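Re: the multi-chain job from yesterday

Posting the exact lines I submitted so nobody has to dig through the queue logs.
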Amino acid sequence: MAGIEIGRYREVARESLDNQTLQRALSGMQQRIGRATAQKYKELPEGPDLRFQAREIRLQTLAGLDVHLERLAERIRGRGGQVFFAQTGEEAVAYCLEVAARHQVRSVVKGKSMVSEEIGLNQALESAGIQATETDLGEYIVQLAGEHPSHIIAPAIHKTREEVGRLFADKLGIAYTDDPAALTQAAREALREKFLTADMGVTGCNLACAETGHITTLSNEGNIRMASTLPRVHVALMGMERIVPNLQDHDILFRLLSRGAAAQNLAGYVSSVGGPAAWDQVDGPEEFHLIVLDNGRSRILADPEFRELLCCIRCGACLNVCPVYGKIGGYAYGHPYPGPIGSVLTPLLSDIGRARDLCFGEALCGACRDACPVNLDIPRMLLALRHKCVQGCANWGVAPGASKQERMLYSLWARAVSNRSLYNKLLKAARWGQKLAPRSGGWLRKLPGPLSGWTASRDLPPMAECSFIEQWKKGKFHPEDHITR
Amino acid sequence: MPHESRPAQIKKISLFVQCLVDVYEPQTAASMVDIFTRLGLEVDCPTEQTCCGQMAYNAGHRREAAIAARHFVSLFEEAEAIVCPSGSCTAMIVHHYPQLLASDPKWAERAQRVAAKTYEFTQFLVDILGIQDVGAAYSGTATYHDSCHLARTLGIREQPRLLLNKVAGLSLVEMEDSDRCCGFGGVFSLKYPEISQAVLQDKVNSILRTGADLVVGCDLSCLINIQGMLHRQGAKVQAMHIAQLLGHRA
Amino acid sequence: MSDPRQEAFLQRIREALGSDRKVAQGGPEQVHGQPQSPEVITPLTGRDQSELVQRLIQAGQALHMQVRECADNEAAANTLVELATGRVQAGTGVVAWDHPLIRELELDQRLDQAGIDLAYTGWQGSPTTDVERRKQRTRIRAQVAQAFMGITSADFCLADTATLVMKTRPGHARSASLVPEIHAAVIRREQIIADLGQLYYLLTHDPDQIQEGLTNCLSLISGPSKTADIELCMVYGVHGPREVYLFVLP
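And the result, structure tokens for all chains:
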């Protein structure tokens, strides 16, 4: 799958943990936005339970997805727009290149589109000799730096102002400054030029509306409006699941999306496009193309265990509360989907077996689910993925993955767990074994082999001389006795 | 949650002490027995009990976890009420057992019935017995850690605080992000130790910033995790299970 | 319309859903949002409207949008000219929607007196061919690109979120509210409604709105362009306008 990369989780996590700048940036972002989002949900007129309603809307939409997509396509075509259904990323890319060739496109301006990153569109455009410029400030920064975004909403969160200053001085030829306002102004000027001269604008789609036949994009910068208004051709990429049946559903979901993404009541720009500019309008693109992408989504749709994943509206709220993401940052997850949503989506869109670390490298704390505008049960899906990794799954092409030692260990554990007397024998052995571990003040300081991860940063208390059950059996807690301490 | 609202007068509770309490801190379970006995309840403790199986379940080993589940269900299905000093175990039993055993309709039904009468310790005291003051006394300041499964899966946040507020001589100070994960995550702490450690350090820092003598929680897994780092770093703060704390008397 | 590629795509979805596929039977789609009462279609007047204006002013403040109530056309025009003369840069001008509300303000004469160019973003004459229209679009585009201020009206203004709602019609350039550094909008009081919910209700229940539809581009604008992509520091005027003003006529 061009575009989707499974990261080197452990390695990159380790690097991220040592990167103090990144740690500060992640911590600052989570403290500000993570907390603010929770507060914003509480302040909703309908209260935080609106999330459950939103979830229902999305699930019901999925249940009739083909009808909604059909309706959307019909209406857009009715306004002179074109709709292309792409089964794979390759088909979507090929279509884009075809449109570009037809119009002799030399430069493209891009509004933020995760789908475009998923299918590797930028690389394909560059290979075809077409310059593709990201216009979201954060995306522009990472593009200039030759890096990937590290967060869905704040792509350059990992960069300091000094780093951006040096980058702009180098790539834009401006005098060095680390003032965000001055740097933003420099980007505005550089990108203004691109917007006015680009032949084609490529954007994503936050949520389409079947009833009216529009695709809607949200931003605060205005870059998506620019990319969808100024160039002659507008191509919008849309994951096939990003649709709701009617406008009232739009209302609910946008209010939640704005809160989940940036703790806002409503994003600064909400733009609904239903086709090219009409013949009597004075500006706007002459051609509008909507590319609806499957790229593995129908496979997720077909599996009731994972279907709810398609309710995701890519707001990034889960990233803003996840304690793991808050430490390891976006790059550890690969590309383009970081954070809790990425830990489930990437394995399912690419290869579960190769993405083991994404499935197991989470604490399952559930903060993501609570922060999600549609209450996605990410922990449940991670558990399902873990099961597939261990057991294997023909449907998803996963071979059984637990090591021989692990199988033996859990086999033994299963026997002990249903046989208290065997269990007690193992406890006795463990009690004896722990005496070999180096101690301090009674606490264990170092454990061997697979357990050593614990004692790298923690001590472990000694086991009690006699377990509670063993004491109970000896009659220590006979009801007539008084407990003394 | 599949609990019935206020079941008829419960006279006897069956303890599921949790493997960690059983093995590391039996005094926590002893304290529970003490508290319930003083409240006039009969306490039973099936001695064949071992482990709820969440570790195997979280590691993807559902076959083995199901073995633990069936063992638990057969052991406890005659109980009036099952009380457990662990949010994560209670969540496992209440939320996951019915699904885990769903493939066999007989077991699914039995699991459902057991789940409906399984309670976490503070939940049982406050919601079922209607008790907030167990007559405990402890001089000092405490901060409270909301364990993930307890707070999010079971929705139990108020009950422990209500109980702590009634402990004579105890002042409660809230830490920042009290419900942020402590980084344990079961096998996660062993398989991804550096990440686990980093998350734990944040929790420890939050605790230290409160200046409290004690960090109290309802899950021994979290507490052992937290105390492990506090001890290693030479901090004086003690981690204590709420059942133990509530067993202290003037 | 038979599109084999589309059919295959949709068929794949149907197969994926299998027996879980559920489609609403005929008629309008089920409405999930809160039902609104029909009263919202009639414009709110008097005290209710005053309250909305206050809400709008407050919401606008939080979003760095300045809302000014103007006693009459004269007052609005004077303020706009003042704003323009204070901000004009050499070689730049003003663009404005060819809209009755704006035409009434007679800005071209007033700005001309101040030495500032005003260009309406409307068709000159009645171009009948594509070539002519393309030429004019090029002209309009060039004018918008060198403008420091764009003056538009709007269809509605949502008080709760200080949102300007703009459909797209002939003579009303989309880029006028987007490209210049300053965006000034002129509306009437009665166009102010409460919130997004009301807007969507109007769009789907008011006969005039239903007939016109959303048009091919509906823009909701809440304040100036902004970003916090560099170290979470808020900066205004990234790509869109840096300043947004709303003038409310009685």
